[in-house]
Design a protein that fits this description.
globular, four-stranded antiparallel sheet, mainly beta, 30 strands
Length: about 400
């Protein structure tokens, strides 16, 4: 006997068709929602950066503001930390930009700062350089003081900190010899345990960032050297260290134990130092006497400053959330809009030369630019003199 169809039952053929159609639609949506690897975006040769967050004075409770921030960094959860040198504290925000807390304050006691420029996040704790009290300090993510060590003057001045995902801390140190003006500075990159015990020296080299000159008015004065080659480095999410000296286009990759793994070299045609570059350099300089800004630069600065023929091979090294390396290039026209970088895989394979949109201007200070995950964060001072942290999402 032939079975009667229920009125609500679709024919077998139509049912199969609908099942296949909806399955394809759902799977297609899943597939299209998966983000392409950043390396694939770089191959296109041009990025689109979409602003998705701005932090400024309005992002904090009444009475708080950015005084004179020196750097910005993130933790693995995407929380944003702004090191405020002027206020001698660290301001913490969540990944949505909600203000969370103040870490540290002015002083000499545990968890206080006498000077503050650099900090980082290492696995489960903050590490900060208290320059005024000559201490490396560690804090919990909630700002609770944990530990500090004293850094003697003879060991030098800390210029950069980075944390490894396993908790170790990488420290860039500079030694200067003010009483020996013919002697170059020494740059050393050191590896410390999470408890701030020295493990080993990873990298060291002499370099000239500045010279000490004797003048009648100022005795021994500091003369900075524009466009001088410098050490540039960054840490990958896996804990590798990418280090280079920008006198030539070359970098080295070290594992988290400080052992060299690979080298990166690339063809490069240096950008020239132009007359416009020289004028822009002097225009940015500011000198003060007794707290008042001088109208004109001291004579020794304009007379003794020397410019090289060419700019360094690159100006900055950054690493994205997938371990790809950005080598940010110097351009012949410093005021030209848009930045350019060479992208390499974590293993040092060249991907492509990539252009950044013209409306995104990189700050001069290397500590004002970071990559985190698929985002670029810039710390900038606007024409109104107010500081902002701007976050851009990276897309093709």
């Amino acid at each position: 006997m032939k079975k009667k169809k229920d009125k609500g039952e679709a024919p077998a053929g139509a049912g199969r068709f609908l099942w296949v159609f909806w399955t394809c639609l759902v799977l297609g949506g899943i597939l299209f929602s998966v983000e392409s690897p950043l390396s694939e975006l770089y191959r296109a040769g041009e990025l689109r950066l979409e602003q998705d967050l701005v932090l400024d004075d309005r992002s904090m409770p009444e009475g708080l503001f950015f005084d004179d921030p020196s750097m910005v960094f993130c933790d693995p959860e995407g929380c944003i930390y702004v090191v405020d040198s002027g206020a001698l504290n660290i301001k913490k925000f969540d990944h949505r930009g909600e203000f969370l807390r103040i870490i540290g304050r002015e002083g000499q006691g545990p968890g206080e700062f006498g000077g503050l420029y650099y900090a980082t996040f290492a696995k489960d704790r903050l590490v900060a350089w208290d320059s005024g009290n000559r201490r490396l300090c560690t804090f919990s993510p909630d700002g609770e003081f944990i530990h500090s060590i004293y850094v003697p003057y003879e060991e030098g001045w800390i210029r950069k900190l980075r944390g490894l995902p396993t908790g170790e801390v990488v420290v860039e140190m500079e030694k200067s010899y003010r009483q020996q003006p013919e002697r170059p500075q020494e740059c050393t990159i050191l590896l410390y345990t999470s408890g701030l015990k020295l493990i080993k020296t990873i990298y060291e080299r002499p370099l000239w960032r500045k010279k000490y000159v004797r003048t009648k008015e100022y005795c021994v004065s500091t003369l900075y050297l524009p466009f001088s080659p410098d050490v540039r480095w960054e840490v990958t999410p896996e804990g590798r260290m990418v280090i280079g000296f920008s006198a030539r286009y070359a970098l080295e990759v070290f594992d988290r134990h400080g052992n060299k793994m690979a080298g990166i070299a690339h063809e490069h045609e240096p950008a020239r130092v132009t007359d416009r570059d020289k004028k822009a350099y002097f225009d940015r300089l500011e000198f003060y006497r007794m707290g008042e800004k001088l109208k004109d630069l001291p004579d020794y600065v304009t007379k003794l400053t020397q410019f090289p023929k060419n700019k360094p091979a690159y100006k900055q090294v950054l690493v994205d959330g997938e371990g790809n390396i950005w080598v940010v290039l110097n351009k012949e026209k410093q005021d030209e809009l848009g930045m350019v970088f060479d992208a390499f895989t974590a293993d040092g394979e060249f991907i492509s030369r990539v252009k950044i949109p013209e409306d995104v201007r990189f700050p001069q200070n290397r500590h004002h630019v970071i990559l985190h995950g698929r985002s670029l964060l810039l710390l900038r001072a606007g024409e109104d003199g107010l500081y902002r942290v701007i976050r851009y999402g990276i897309s093709s």
